[in-house]
Amino acid sequence: MGKGGKAADEKKADKPDEILEVFIDGKLYDVTDFMKTHPGGTVIKFYAGQKNDATQAFNNFHHRSEKAKKMLANLKSREATDVKQYNPKERQSEMLAEFNAMTKDFQDLGYFKPNPLHVMYRIVEIFLMHFIGFYLLLKVSNQTWDLYRWLGLFVLGLATGRCGWLMHEGGHNSLTGWIKMDRIIQIFMYGVGCGMSGGWWRSQHNRHHAMPQKLGSDPDLDTLPLVLFSSSYVAGKLSRLSGLQKVWIKVQPFLFPVVTTLLVSSGWQFFLHPRYIVRKNEILEGISLFIRYFCIYFFLGTKYGAATTILMYVIYNWIGSNYIFINFAVSHTHLPTVAKDDTSVDWVRYAAEHTMNVNPGPLKFVNWWMSYLNFQIEHHLYPAMPQFRHPLISPRIKDFFKKYGLQYKTMNYTDAMAVTFENLDKVGSDVYLG
């Protein structure tokens, strides 16, 4: 919902005589008071008071959380059969019923079970990449910008991106099967590896998964003033944009990899995320940031001095930012958006119509390059499933979509990248001319 709708919802939630409910598995649960203390943040507001079926969202967000299931059981509830818009026969369509049955099959096949060896491999890979990157930088003279130094910075940039991929899976609790351990891995990898806050990321990313590409709900659409992926986001608001902003957006296909990604990551690292850590008193996250900057000072600062170290940090941070942000952009940003007041899109249709896959490519290199997040359709259907299992379920998802007339969209990596930048160009032109 837009700003007015969100404010209205919050105002209703403050009134004791106004009851807001969510529909989960045939029941309506009263979340009027619970919304204020929901551990997952404001994402619950996207389903409260609407006709959206929250069953699949709840099951996938809380697949491993017994605590969440106990909280749900303790909420005041009532059967929904007497409420027309929430009648299970209407809301639980044949497609969603089959999706639930298919999910049960995947659980029985063990596809939600983690693989400790896979987790160990991912962690060891990241440590080795950091070791190689720092070794190459320490190997060269502090006066020489030779191949070793550039190679070292490139490896450290890739290591930053690999930390981002791993923390992403930890944030979805799909690494070890133990929520607390996944949370620790995420905090450490994101803090030490990227200089960012896992808690801040979870609060934003859960909202994205709840309703991808929905205006007013998906924070990934709220990217101004640095970049704009959809002209629908500023529909009716063009007069509020300054001439300089319009020029910036006009040339965003060029600026996005050159400077925008670095500005975003820098803003996160040195303002938004530290502020979140302080406000939320996230001690473990603060320790992770301290370890990161101490290592940079110890390994690089003592050898190169402040000016050269800062320059090298900017370079490898730029490489890591491009690796992460551009690859994330290819699976969503060029796809259609959902109107703020549209409540007709369900969990399955969000994945089918507003995400897409990127083909694994020769030797399945893209699977490694994107850490299986090239299977975005499967990831959005089952965010709690270990990502390396997504290729295993892909054929069945494809057949399932075909049966219900849903598009299973997939592209080659180069085509997906081209479409992403073409969309940036089109949006930029629309805004500039508008």
How would you summarize this macromolecular structure in one to three sentences?
This protein is mainly alpha-helical and 434 residues long.
Task: Provide key terms for this protein.
Flavocytochrome B2, Chain A, domain 1, three-stranded antiparallel beta sheet, 434 residues, globular, 60% helix, two-stranded parallel sheet, single chain, mainly alpha, disordered N terminus
Mind explaining what this structure looks like?
By secondary structure, the protein is mainly α. Among the domains are: 3-92, Cytochrome b5-like heme/steroid binding domain (Flavocytochrome B2, Chain A, domain 1, Roll), CATH 3.10.120; 116-216 and 252-329, no CATH class. Residues 1-16 have low confidence and may be disordered. Strands 1-2-3 form a three-stranded antiparallel sheet. A two-stranded parallel sheet has the order 4-5. Helices cover 60% and strands 3% of the residues.
